[in-house]
Amino acid sequence: MTEIAALILAAGLSKRMGQPKMFLPWGNVTVLEKSIETFTKSGIQQIIVVTGENTAAVQELLHRTTSAGNCEILYNPNYGDGEMVNSIKVGLSAVNSMAGAAFIALGDHPQLDPIIPARMLEAYEKQSSDLIIPSFQNRRGHPWLVGRPLFGAILGLGQNETMRTFIQNYQDSIHYIEGNESILKDLDTPEDYRRDKP
């Protein structure tokens, strides 16, 4: 199987949550640890966590836990603008040169069903597609799996362009896999957290 990396985006400002959501308890771990764990259990060898203002706290958390595996932690100096694309660029720039593709995943997505990355990896091997996205009831979700041939398209996005621009430019290249409700269930608000926490 082709080597695959995973970028876990954890640089958001958590404005709607009102507190740093990556550190909220999720069972016997935290939201961020659980989100990472899904990919370590999928056999992903390189996991890059992109952080912002809470970099030191993320480093402390991941250095004292074994559930998250051996993650690389990278700082996005532009986290304050709230644009996900800047964190993705930081992460993609550090992907191992041997990796043929990278998951782009959310750090606040502890409910992701592990079957989703597994199906995406299977589709990547079988379909030869460089952009695989799960969908549920005609809604795109996360994570995304982006092949190396498209890394340059993301890294080359201009200052006023976002991942929406990228998707619009490559919408004919998307291979959708059938997901489930978990692909839509990231945590944005206190209500989300209270409703869904285990």
Describe the model.
It is a single chain. This protein is α/β, with parallel strands linked by helices. It has one domain: Spore Coat Polysaccharide Biosynthesis Protein SpsA, Chain A. Helices cover 30% and strands 22% of the residues. It is built from seven helices and ten strands. The strands form two sheets. Strands 1, 4, 5, 6, 7, 8, 9 and 10 form an eight-stranded mixed sheet that branches. It starts with a strand and ends with a helix. The mean pLDDT is 93.
Features:
198 residues, eight-stranded mixed β-sheet, 10 strands
Secondary-structure blueprint of this entry?
Blueprint: E1 4-10, E2 25-26, E3 29-30, H1 31-40, E4 46-51, H2 55-63, E5 71-75, H3 84-92, E6 101-106, H4 115-127, E7 131-136, E8 139-140, E9 144-147, H5 151-155, H6 163-169, E10 175-178, H7 190-196
Parallel strand pairs: 1-4, 1-6, 4-5, 7-10
Antiparallel strand pairs: 2-3, 6-9, 7-8, 7-9
